[in-house]
TrEMBL record:
Residues 138-165 form a coiled coil. Its EC number is 2.1.2.9. It comes from Cuspidothrix issatschenkoi CHARLIE-1. Keywords: Coiled coil. One of its GO terms (molecular function) is methionyl-tRNA formyltransferase activity. SUPFAM superfamilies: FMT C-terminal domain-like. It comes from the Bacteria. It catalyses: L-methionyl-tRNA(fMet) + (6R)-10-formyltetrahydrofolate = N-formyl-L-methionyl-tRNA(fMet) + (6S)-5,6,7,8-tetrahydrofolate + H(+). Attaches a formyl group to the free amino group of methionyl-tRNA(fMet). The formyl group appears to play a dual role in the initiator identity of N-formylmethionyl-tRNA by promoting its recognition by IF2 and preventing the misappropriation of this tRNA by the elongation apparatus. This is Methionyl-tRNA formyltransferase. Residues 34-132 form the Formyl transferase C-terminal domain. It holds the Pfam family Formyl_trans_C. It is an enzyme of class 2 (transferase).
Length: 166
């Protein structure tokens, strides 16, 4: 598109126009931050597919969590669900072993995960990482808080033991 633009200006097919000086007519774009790529599975499959594309390289990638581990989601496509269903957004509803894709429930259909990445397993086709329909993507804040409290208690006990030895 950039080359076409330059050719159009050079050939006088595209005529540059001065931008409005009134600030109220200007669109202001503020920088995206990595946390803007966190997936909210309550959104539509179309909107989530747009988020993944907008967050893809060279940016940090859209992401979610699987069993507390961050999963970066690089390539997806939305699909409608053509049968009656009951489920919670974020639930893995289908593993497609032939295409190595994983279907995740959204508010209005499913998002097909094509390529994802974790710190432990690297970047792979989705079904190489997600192997079960008995999982749900997203951060479970209650579980995370519970695990942190348990770990703090364990560390406090360890500190007490160490200070008694000193």
């Amino acid at each position: 598109m950039f080359v076409e633009l330059l050719d159009g200006i050079a050939n006088s097919n595209i005529i540059p126009q001065e931008q409005p000086s009134d600030p109220a007519l200007s669109l202001r774009c503020f920088p995206r931050l990595p946390q803007d790529g966190e997936i909210n599975w309550q959104q539509s499959a179309q909107d989530l597919a747009k988020l993944v594309r907008a967050s893809a390289e060279p940016f940090a990638g859209a992401y979610s969590f699987l069993n507390g581990e961050k999963v970066t989601i690089w390539r997806v496509h939305p699909e409608p669900i053509d049968y009656p269903y009951l489920g919670v957004p974020g639930q893995v509803i289908e593993i497609r072993y032939e295409t190595k894709e994983v279907a995740v429930l959204t508010s209005d259909g499913m998002l097909i995960l094509e390529e994802i990445e974790t710190l432990k397993k690297g970047r792979r086709r989705s079904s190489d990482i997600i192997k079960s329909c008995r999982v749900r993507l997203g951060m479970n804040v209650s579980d995370e808080i519970s695990q942190l409290k348990q770990r703090i208690t364990e560390l406090e006990q360890l500190i007490k033991k160490i200070t008694k030895l000193i």
